[in-house]
Structures
1.
Amino acid sequence: MNPLVLWFHKLGSPPYFYRLAGRLLPWLWGLGLISLAVGLYGGLVLAPSDYQQSDAFRIIYVHVPSAWMSLFIYGFMALNGFIALIWRIKLSETLAMAAAPIGAAFTFICLATGSLWGKPMWGTWWTWDARLTSELVLLFLYFGVMGLYQAIEDRRQASRAAAFLALVGIVNLPIVHFSVNWWNTLHQGSTVRLFGPSLIDSRMLWPLLIMAIATKFLFAASLLSRARVDLLELEAGKDWARQVALADGDAA
Amino acid sequence: MTEFLSMGGYGNYVWSSFAIFAIVLTLDAVAPLLKRRRVLRELRGRVRRAQKRSEETA
């Protein structure tokens, strides 16, 4: 086998992943907090006020990165769920289920901050517009995955059932993304584009991109931290887990 | 400074948004730490019980 495939097999082994994630975690938290500090300073202090929305537009620096993460994490969860269903890799089951609460957290932030922006700008906290409604459905999908996972006794069966639900829910992702084009929504269309020039001034754009990077790091850190604990719980009967518990016992 | 905090009159909305972001992500970061403490405690209990059993049978 080639070295990459070998490494991939090794990564799937819980004790190896546990150690690797433990070494990566301080770096991920560090990079996440540094980029968060830069992004917040750029967004709150350096970026100029919007000519229409004054300083209320600054809410986008938490709203938009959270919205991106709500979709990104769902995709990540569904991908790992797919791998878990096809190849029965324990690590993928764990990663998929660890991602769900983080995705729900970002979706909640997105909805709450959107509401706080909508009140002064649209004059309403909430409206049943296609973008808002599909994002709310996304939150319920996360809750459904988490609830189904908790409802089944056997941990591995539970994660496979929840992974299946996550896969079905993927149909909602393009609906959220394209809702502003498909329907006449109160929510505005995209201003940041991967292809072609963005419709936002670069002085406003760069803090937004830094915040997007910061939330990626924070997600990765939270994910690894959760996956480590979940693997420890899942493998409680195994030797390596016992050794971790005993080694940690003197410190705690 | 007061001008910065007032955010052009939208201070309440802007700062509440950033507070929600900070609070929710802090809870998200703390949750696995609390779970880790519980799981490790249970694991150590398991190890101790297994040791006791093997001593009794010996």
2.
Amino acid sequence: MRTFAIMTRVLKELVRDKRTLTLMFLAPIFILILLNFVFSVSQSTNVTVGTVTVTQSLNRELGQTKHVTVKTYANKTAAKKALKNDHIDAIIQQKKQNYSLTYANTDASKTTATKLAFKNALSANSLAQMKGRLTLATTALAKLRQQLPNAPATQQQTNLAAPKLTNHYVYGDANTGFFDKILPILMGFFVFFFVFLISGMALLGERTSGTLDRLLATPVKRYEIVFGYMLSYGILAIFQTILIVMVTILLLGVEVVGSIVNVVLINLLLALVALAFGILLSTFANSEFQMMQFIPILVIPQIFFSGIIPLDSMANWVKAISYVIPIKYSGDAATQIITRGVPLSSLGLDIGVLLIFLVGLTCLNILGLRRYRKV
Amino acid sequence: MASASITLTHLVKKFGPQTVLKDINLTVQPGEIVGLIGPSGSGKSTVIKTALGMELADGGQATVFGQQMPQRQLLARIGYMAQTDALYEALSGKENLVFFAKMKGLTKTTITAAITHVATVVDLTADLNKRVSGYSGGMKRRLSLAIALLGKPELLILDEPTVGIDPALRRQVWRELDKVRDAGSSILITTHVMDEAELTDRVALLLGGEVIAFATPAQLKQQYQVATIEDVFLKAEGVTL
């Protein structure tokens, strides 16, 4: 029952620490909402293209492309000046059959957008030219036919209209972007980060204030201390996870194909891993500042291997690192639930690995307390 | 005769290459107050931590109530007060007491009575429901002592219990310690306040990792032919008077 006594004590301390509570609950939400704004704004890239001696039809085609504005310049010098002054993002110059393109290239996405727009405009332009020639030929043919008597009346109507494209999305809609892809992973990261930090600090504080020594001078068992901490922060993590998941889904409007409860469960499991991890690392820190030093070394790199950046494109040895990153597994599981509705039973590997992390770290913690009492 | 509360025999403790305790021999009998005095860094706290089983001896033996330490169960019979106050500041005095009473394994029925008792002893009854963060330094020390007294331990181990408290309160604490001793418990107390050493039953002088003298204050003074324990200490250290 000492476990419960420790749990109630830690919870009491937490509830009275309003500032920490605010950090745990409001900070992740604030960041998520901010990220949503940032990413949804940059969804469409607007480019301004300067053209020099480009045919009128091509200019028109370019101008019709979405998010592209065309400015015509008489010569390249004027266009270059505009490019330099940041009035335009690229120059397209036509020299007879060939085109030369100059990009400001200060924003890679604008360069890509320009390339794509130009390619489309060019093919549309040549298609229109071909269409014109075809019409001419057809009319000439029809005239010829009319002059010929007894010709079969099978007047084949050539359909010259471009084929219509309809897009269907298995997950989300046309507005589904990068943010929607990284959100399930980011959600996990915030759960991990805040639980890690606060639980680590708590046990550290207990050590530096001397209460841990006093606690260990009673017949309390080491596992009772670890479990007491796990339970209290686990309860806090339940609320935090539910809140983060709800904000992500309801406020940011992320479509969840699978069960929301499963998303919460996965993140809760991650929170417990973070908890055990934070407690373990706090034994290697002598002050709050030293605890903070673990963040750039052990917490931030987790983002790189979490799946936000596609792991398939990484070198094999880099990929190997990702296997020891807890967020990779929770991110993978959460993504599968959110985007494809995979049930928990099919996520055995992810859940299994997270459980191994949890049990392993907890055992290390119980063992680690031996440093402060030899029995 | 009942077994001694603490027996340390030829205790050695090293931290890395540094030998903190060379050869410590010390006994604390039931019903006596033993003072452990020595300069800062002489290893007073290490002696205490080894006796409690927080540190493992590198040589020799540490037994409490006749049993080899470290031994978790025995901790229920020991009251410990560290140099730092070691209190949960966000909790009230009472909540601190309840928490540590539970940790010591006091049963639900006895907790309330035990808390009322120790609060009276350290004169904190009126302030029990206040948060510790609002306590003065002296109140924190008293609460800390109250926690150590919970459950009427047979052995009290106090690390500098009177640091930073006013003379009136220090008197009060000592009166209380005498009462505890008279009830049959034993007390091991570290201090570097020399006039406090006079109040103990036996004094152990810790110097250079060894107990260089261990006798009653009166015997020590006679042995070194000086008037006060402070002079004994200075003479032992080799400071010319």
